[in-house]
Amino acid sequence: MALLDERSAEFVEEHPSWVSSNRMWLLGEAGRYAEALAYAETLPPDMYGLTVEKAWILEKSGRFDEALALLRSDAEVRPWEVADLLIRHGRAAEAVATMPSLAEQHAAYKRRDAAMQANRDPNTPPF
Asked: Do the Cβ atoms of 86 and 95 come closer than 8 Å?
């Protein structure tokens, strides 16, 4: 934690998701689940990976049902992330049953890509 806290304001500004996810991961690995979840509540709700990080903390703290509900409630969470959680808890049949077909996944990714392209600033290079 001290190494994260020593990062410059410029570094934190340039890498906010990295700093935030590592802080939550370190708190979780240290068993400081309540602190990790409280920290997560201070972050922008649309931060990349936040739902998955919070679900991991909930799972580590023995709150599997809450972790599963959180993952299922976020449309941006990929189906395999829900399936992975179910499999880790011995629910492989449910994991397989909840996975969309490859055609459904492909269509969802195409819709997501189209939405991202539509919202892209035309003055920003595509790379």
From this structure: yes
Taking Cα atoms as reference points, which of 49, 50, 57, 5 lies closest to residue 29? Answer: 57
64 neighbors 89 (Cβ within 8 angstroms): yes
CB 53 within 8 A of CB 86: no
Q: Report the run of H or E that residue 82 belongs to, with start and end.
A: helix 79-88
Kindly state the DSSP code that residue 101 receives in the 8-state scheme.
Answer: P
More confident residue, 49 or 91: 91
pLDDT of residue 125: 65
CA distances from 113 to 43, 117, 118, 119 (A): 25, 6, 9, 10
Q: Residue 5 has what pLDDT?
A: 86
pLDDT given for residue 126 in this prediction: 61
| Residues 6+ away with beta carbon under 8 Å from 54 | 24, 37, 40, 67, 70
CB 28 within 8 A of CB 63: no
Q: Please give the class, per CATH, of domain 2-119.
A: mainly alpha
From first CA to last CA, the distance across the chain in angstroms is: 33
